Amino acid sequence: GIELVGPPPIMGLLSAIFGDGGAKARAQGAEALAKAKYEAAMTQAERDKEHSDAMILQQRDAANKMEHVFHEKAAAEKIAHEEKMRLEREKSDLLKEAADANLRVIQESHERQRILMKESEEKRIEIEKNARDTEFRQREENEQKREIERTEAREREERSQREMTKAINEANREVVEMKDKTHDKITQLVMDNQKSKEELMKENNKIIADKDAANAAKLDQLTTNYQSQVREAQESAKQREDALHLERKAVDEKYRKEMENMSKMSKEERDKMTDDYHKRMKEKDEELSRNHREKDAKMDELHKNHLEDQRKAHEEINKLQEIRKEEVERLHRENEKNLREHNAKQEEMLNKMLEQSESKNAQLLYQSAQMNQLIGMHMQEQAEFLRISSCREELAPLKELKSSLLDNATKSCELWYAHEEAIRSEDQNRDLDDIKNQIRNNSKAMKNALNDIWRTIDECGSLRDQKQQWKGALQMIDVNHATPYDKAVRRTINGRDTPMERFHKLEDQCEKLKTAIQDLPDMIIESLQSLMSRNAQATITFIPADIQGVTKAITAPKQDGKIESIDGENGKEAVIEEP
Fold first, then answer.
1. What pTM was computed for the model?
2. How many CB atoms lie under 10 A from the CB of residue 188?
3. Phi, psi of 565 (to 5 degrees)
4. How many whole angstroms separate alpha carbon 322 and alpha carbon 311?
5. Which burial class, exposed, middle or buried, applies to 56 when counting CB atoms under 10 A from its CB (0-12, 13-18, 19+)?
């Protein structure tokens, strides 16, 4: 404050200048002026003092508020630290529980895999034993059937020889009757053959209808899965968006509540609060935008995957349709070929009968031989049925082994994808050991499956040339793909600090192995017509080796009245003299 003591100094100066006489009035005016200035100075000093006191009180109030805020902040930090420590302890407990659970799952998986491998080995041994027993029983049954057929053939031949003399007087009449009967039987045989083809076509059409239904169901399942994934992605994005809107609303409400107390805050605090509010609102808006972008990207990815799945399914359906079309065309060609062959045989046999009608003994022999041939054709059909059944029984384990081999290859490729994802994730040790063990076990299982297929093919007795073709294809797969892949897997899985390039190379090798297995052709049961066309020699008609005691072909009669025939039992010529 300003403190003034005593009269102002100006009064003495005025007295010295103007004197004490007539200047008294001026001196009094000057004194009044000085007094007024003095009072004004005192008033200003009091105002300054009041303003200073107000500023001191305001600073003290602000300091108290800052101290209160500091104490609240320290308490909040203490609570947050305690909460963080509690969450870390819970996280540590959860990680420990997850590790224990994962270890138990891995141990259980290994135990199940060991049990499954043991059961698979026992099943394989049992299947091999059953196959050997079945093959042994089949050989015994075939041998018994052949013995019975040989006995019946000898009896028929003897009976035919005895009846030949008795029927010589009726030969001319019976030639015509036999011609008609033969024509009817051959016609019936053609009809039976056509009926068999129609039944086969009917069965094939049923298989085609089942496959079409399965393909349609597969396409429907793809669409259903796609729609489910889209709904899940949309619901997840909607939940995230609602949560962000709630957080944004909470920030806005908090800011508005704090705005109500803004009059008690300084300008710097208000500006800082406003900046924080806008910053947090901007972060929430960015999270909303990012959520929309992630949702759109997820929708695009699901749509793209759905289109790719549909494309693959349609390609597979088209491929199956092409295969079915080729099979139908093949059956039509075989049917036409069989009809032409039957017509040609019918015409040839009728011509022979007309040429041999002058010789009564030749006519009777031809009748007997024709009957034997019809019986042989009937037995040939039975043998064909048995052969096809045997082939199907032999092919069944091959199809299962091939399917298992392809499943292992597909699972190996999927495991490589999972392996890459596990490496790219933050926790690189998550499930890696389990995935590596599964990759190694699958590689070993594929090698064992190839060996089982090779051994099973060796045991097949009805597949002829296809065995060599399959062995060649299996050897190519083993040498070019399976063995290098298995060796590389064992070296890489057992190694440490393996670069990603080697994993990518193994993944490519696995894909190539899978493609090679998919390209492995199916073993098809070869038709009897194909076997006949490949094994026919001169005019001798091929009949399977297990059909014995049947005359295979008959030549025209010689001029001396003797007829030559080739006996299917011993392959020697049998000369029958005219009685």
1. 0.32
2. 11
3. -140, 155
4. 16
5. exposed
Residue 238 neighbours by CB under 8 Å, 6+ apart: none
- List 563's β-bridge partners, or say none: 576
Nearest to 494 by CA among 442, 446, 433: 433
- What DSSP designation does 520 have? S
Q: How far apart, in whole angstroms, are the C-alpha atoms of residue 523 and residue 516? A: 16
Q: What is the CA radius of gyration of the chain?
A: 53
Q: How far apart are CA 519 and CA 474, in angstroms?
A: 11
Domain boundaries, the chain: 167-355
Tokens 């073709």 sit on residue: 469
pLDDT tens-digit profile of 118-155? 787 788 788 878 877 877 787 788 778 877 877 887 78
| DSSP symbol at 482 | I
Query: Which residues have CB under 8 Å from 1's CB, separation 6+?
Result: 45, 46, 48, 49
**DSSP 8-state code for residue 576:** E
Distance, in Å, from the CA atom of 265 to the CA atom of 279, rounded to the nearest integer, reads: 20
CB 7 within 8 A of CB 37: no
**Alpha helix (H) residue ranges in 495-536:** 500-518, 528-535
The number of beta carbons lying within 10 Å of the beta carbon of residue 270 is 14
Question: Which amino acid is present at 407?
Answer: D
Closest CA to 452 of 403, 512, 387: 403
User: Residue 200 corresponds to which tokens in the numbers above?
Assistant: 């086969």
Q: Cβ–Cβ contacts within 10 Å for residue 29, how many?
A: 11
Cα 97 to Cα 94, 101, 339, 422, 429: the distances in Å are 5, 6, 75, 20, 16
Tens-place pLDDT, residues 411-462? 888 888 777 777 666 445 556 777 778 888 888 888 888 888 888 877 776 5
Q: How many residues would you count in the chain?
A: 579
Residue 504 CA to residue 495 CA, distance in Å, equals 15
Integer Cα distance of 49 and 578 in angstroms: 163
